[in-house]
C-alpha cells in the first residue's frame, strides 16, 4: 500500500465513521440525557480509536476493525493491543466528559433558579393584575392597541413595500 492509498483509506474511513456517528446521534436522540451522552462517548471512542498495526512502519488502523478481524479470523495478536487502546482512549474521553458534566451542573442549577424566579415574578405580576382588575372594573385594560401593534417598518415589510403612501 502506497502512502497515497493509506491516506485515501483513512479519509474514507473518517467519512464513514462520521456518518456512523451521525446515525448513532439520531438513534440515541430520544433517550434520557444521562444515558444518551455516555452512549455517544462510547460510540465515538469505538469509531475513532486508532491502533498501531505494524510498529516498524508506524502503520495505524481503526481499532474496531483490527479487533474484529483478529477475533473473526484468529490471526495476529493485535486484538489485545487494540483493546488496550480502547481502554486508554475511553478513559481519556470519559474523564473529559465527566469534567464537562462537572462544569455544566452548577450552570444548570443557576439557570433553573433563574427560571423559577422569573416564573414566580410572572405569577406575582398576574396576581397583581387580577387584583387591579377586580378593584377597578371600569379602568382601561392594560393592553393598548397601539402598543401591541407591530412597528410600522415591520408592517410595511409584510406588505412587500418599503414605503407606505395613503390612497387618494
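^ Assign residues to that structure.
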Amino acid at each position: 500500500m502506497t502512502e497515497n492509498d493509506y491516506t485515501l483509506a483513512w479519509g474514507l474511513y473518517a467519512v464513514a465513521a462520521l456518518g456512523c456517528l451521525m446515525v448513532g446521534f439520531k438513534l440515541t436522540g430520544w433517550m434520557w440525557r444521562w444515558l444518551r451522552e455516555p452512549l455517544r462517548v462510547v460510540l465515538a471512542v469505538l469509531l475513532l480509536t486508532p491502533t498501531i498495526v505494524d510498529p516498524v512502519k508506524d502503520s495505524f488502523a481503526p481499532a474496531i476493525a483490527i479487533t474484529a478481524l483478529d477475533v473473526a479470523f484468529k490471526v495476529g495478536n493485535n486484538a489485545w493491543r487494540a483493546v488496550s487502546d480502547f481502554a486508554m482512549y475511553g478513559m481519556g474521553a470519559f474523564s473529559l466528559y465527566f469534567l464537562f458534566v462537572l462544569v455544566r451542573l452548577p450552570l444548570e442549577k443557576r439557570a433553573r433558579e433563574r427560571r423559577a424566579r422569573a416564573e414566580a415574578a410572572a405569577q406575582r405580576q398576574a396576581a397583581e393584575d387580577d387584583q387591579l382588575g377586580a378593584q377597578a372594573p371600569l379602568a382601561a385594560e392594560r393592553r393598548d392597541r397601539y402598543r401591541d401593534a407591530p412597528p410600522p417598518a415591520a408592517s410595511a415589510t409584510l406588505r412587500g413595500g418599503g414605503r407606505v403612501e395613503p390612497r387618494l
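The longest helix spans residues 78-135.
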